[in-house]
Amino acid sequence: MSLIKKRIMAPGPTEVPPTVLAAAGQPILHHRTPQYRAIFAEVCEKIKVVFQTKQTVLTLAAGGTGGMEALLTNLSEPGETVIVVSGGVFGERWAKIAEALGRKVAKIDVEWGKAVDPAQVEAALKANPEAVLVLGTLSETSTGVEHPIEAIAKVVAGSKACFGVDAISGLGACKLLMDEWKIDAVVAGTQKGLMMPPGLALIALSDKGWAKANSIKSGRFYWNLPTALKSMTAEKLPDTTYTPNVSLVMQLRESLNLIHAEGMEAIWQRHQLLAKAAREGAKALGLKLLAPDSPSCAVTAVWSPEGVEGTAVVKKLRDEWGISIVGGQGKLKTSIFRIGHLGYADRADVLMTLAALEVVLTQLGVKVPRGEGVKAAQGVFLEAAK
Ligand code: PMP
Q1: Are residues 290 and 307 in the same domain?
Q2: Do 154 and 300 fall into the same domain?
């Protein structure tokens, strides 16, 4: 058996730094002890910087989708109208959860690979003045699109509706200023920009969001956010109503230490740089980007070349190079592949992925100008270092 290192270049789960991995090996602390609660208090304070909020960030023992459901159950009632920006699998997920929970869904259908125009949100609010919630996605992982969250937030802030953002793959990679942009709810997961294993959902609400959450009458128990907030604030040290994911919280303390050491501005810049290098590298190989006009800085989606299924590229990179990128989702399942460059990712990761991609595409019969992808990415890095 040959020794092939495993490397993740997927838009989540992402690689986990050694100190964060090691933190999982610590003995379990009982969650009601002052020792654990002191660690949790540190996490609760440090996570606010990532959300760019003064609000309490709640930690839920759930994957990202659980956080999305929690947001919906706390910011809307059954029968109420929810406006959903849908331009990919994860926008579509908002609609599916909302429908499953008996909300009326007014969907803004956006072409996959394009960002929503804030004017479309304005029109949807006009057509549905009774809407209580608008739902969007910061980084639409399935298409590699970054939506104009700040501009949408401005539109929604002028209405009675709250604005909820799925920042599951975007937070800690793409710029998001929750308080300054007046976003009412942000949900994130740990397995992306936060450089952690999957398993925690994080959610924060604005004052407008909390007012709505406090008025909800129906259908919540585990996802009762006002109850969770009470546990957080009842005593000097924060607490959770139910048993938390103790090991993940200890790991989160480590990842937040790394995030604080780098600083949010530097983190956003690093992700922009890696994304630009990935895009320029792909283009130099003659590949077409799915989202050239509004690309995400967390993930780059590329059309698979004529006659080659994206899944074949993914398989060869994984089996022969140990590099895990991902194929498409939903209707783009075989026609694209996606390279993640978020969280614990650096310039060498992008260069390595492009270099291996050149070999794999060549072997699959694609005429790629070998060396040009790496060269273009090097150019981006050289320019940035000036
Ligand atoms: N939203 C986005 C934008 C995502 O990228 C993902 C995960 N790929 C989810 C939601 C769902 O998160 P989870 O798989 O942790 O439930």
Answers
A1: yes
A2: no
Distance CA 322, CA 341 (A): 16
Q: What is the dihedral of CA 132, 138, 144, 146, to 10 degrees?
A: 100
Helices (H) and strands (E) in the chain, counts: 13, 14
332 and 237 in a common domain: no
By alpha-carbon position, which residue is closest to atom 2 of ligand 1? 168
Domain range for 156: 18-261
- Tell me the chain's radius of gyration from C-alpha atoms: 21
Question: What average pLDDT does range 367-381 have in this prediction?
Answer: 97
On whether both 121 and 97 belong to a single domain, the answer is yes
Which secondary-structure segment (H or E) carries 231? helix 225-233
Domain-located, residue 7: no
Instruction: Say yes or no to pLDDT of 138 above 90.
Output: yes
Any ligand 1 atom below 6 A from CB of 198: yes
Residues 291 and 372 in one domain: yes
The Å distance, Cα 168 to ligand 1 centre, comes to 6
CA dist 57 → 172, 203, 249, 359, 363 (Å): 14, 6, 13, 44, 48
Q: Which helix (H) or strand (E) holds 82?
A: strand 81-86
Q: Whose CA is nearest to atom 12 of ligand 1?
A: 64
Residue 4 lies in a domain: no
Neighbours of 280 (CB within 10 A): 20
SS3 of residue 84 by DSSP: strand
Shared domain for 211 and 324, answered yes or no, is no
Structure tokens at 279: 């895009």
CB atoms within 10 A of CB 299: 32
Indicate whether residue 10 lines ligand 1 (CB < 6 A).
no
Same structural domain, 301 and 243:
no
- Here the CATH number for the domain that contains residue 64 is 3.40.640.10
Please count the structural domains in the chain.
2
In this structure, the number of other CB atoms found within 10 A of the CB of residue 25 comes to 9
pLDDT value, residue 19: 98
pLDDT for 173-217, tens place per residue? 999 999 999 999 999 999 999 999 999 999 999 999 999 999 999
Mean confidence (pLDDT) of the chain: 97
Q: Both 253 and 367 in a single domain?
A: no
pTM of the entire predicted model? 0.98
